[in-house]
Amino acid sequence: MTEQPIGILGGTFDPVHRAHLQLAEDACANLGLVQVLWIPAGNPPHRDRPQASAEQRLAMVALALNGYPQFTIDDSEVRSSAPSYTVATLQRLRAIHGARPLVLLLGADAFHGLSKWHRWRELFALAHIAIATRPGYALDAQALDGKLHEEYLRRRSGDYSCLTAQAAGCIITFAITPLDISASAIRARLAAGQEIQDLLPKPVLDYIANNHLYSGH
Ligand SMILES: Nc1ncnc2c1ncn2[C@@H]1O[C@H](COP(=O)(O)OP(=O)(O)OP(=O)(O)O)[C@@H](O)[C@H]1O
Ligand SMILES: O=C(O)c1ccc[n+]([C@@H]2O[C@H](COP(=O)([O-])O)[C@@H](O)[C@H]2O)c1
Questions:
Q1: Does the model's pTM come out above 0.80?
Q2: What are φ and ψ of residue 107, in 5° steps?
Q3: Could you tell me which residues come within 8 angstroms of residue 56 by beta carbon, excluding any fewer than 6 positions away?
């Protein structure tokens, strides 16, 4: 019998916010995942250097996940000085988990950029990809660049049983409770001295205040 799939949520988490939690909770509920591995990026490729350090972002994720037994942290990218390439992380996880299905969770915005990722074609042999539609970032298949569009058409499935029937290789989309929250908007609000109460778990909010993060001075 196939083992139950493990969800993988990588992110810069600068800072982690409620939409990340919603994404992971909805993935568990809708895709039948019993566990989601959260992987903060140590040196995220393809974006400016984060404002908070890798250790601080890891600490905020740990605070956010308190009380969610189905969520666990993988700190391997934070502990490494190498660029946080997802292909390398999935190769490591594949070596640990054998033939167990792995499901990489991505917001639709992240999926649209996938063909710019390091050795992106190898990702499909290592994990399934589950795309969550994010406010303002619906999946627009026609806007995918040529090679990614081809892979999308070849691999997409409307049947979630593919996530358990094979270890990797399917692309599915799933609905999440839409929350119009982004870390960049949170950083901008904090720098402008505006309220962000409802956008983050309280312990993360306290951590940001205690460590004077994102205040712009
Ligand atoms: N509001 C949201 N709804 C759905 N998915 C989201 C949302 N916010 C982030 N994600 C997804 O979570 C993952 C990690 O995101 P990330 O840590 O970059 O947060 P972010 O809010 O997108 O940050 P930033 O605004 O700094 O780019 C990505 O796959 C991203 O698409
Ligand atoms: O492997 C890559 O080349 C690559 C390029 C861009 C993003 N990623 C990963 O995608 C995840 C979300 O990235 P971000 O920048 O939206 O936080 C995070 O785990 C990154 O390490 C990975």
A1: yes
A2: -70, 155
A3: 207, 211, 213
Confidence of residue 217 (pLDDT cuts 50, 70, 90): low
Q: Which of 8, 12, 25, 117 to mutate to test the pocket of ligand 1 (most atoms within 8 A of CB)?
A: 12
Instruction: Encode pLDDT of 39-74 as tens digits.
Output: 999 999 989 999 999 999 999 999 999 999 999 999
Give all domains of the chain, ordered by start, each with its CATH number: 6-210 (3.40.50.620)
DSSP 142-163: GGS-HHHHHHHHHHB-S-TTHH
Residue 2: pLDDT over 80 = no
End-to-end Cα separation, the chain, in angstroms: 56
- Spacing, Cα 118 to ligand 2 middle (Å): 10
List the one residue out of 99, 78, 72, 77 whose CA is nearest residue 88. Answer: 77
Within 6 A (CB) of ligand 1 lie 11-14, 19-20, 23, 106-107, 109-110, 132, 134, 176, 179, 181-184
157-172 pLDDT per residue, tens: 999 999 999 999 999 9
Burial letters 187-212, b for 16+ CB under 10 A, else e: beebeeeeebeebbbeebbebbeeee
What span, in angstroms and rounded, lies between the C-alpha atoms of 191 and 214? 6
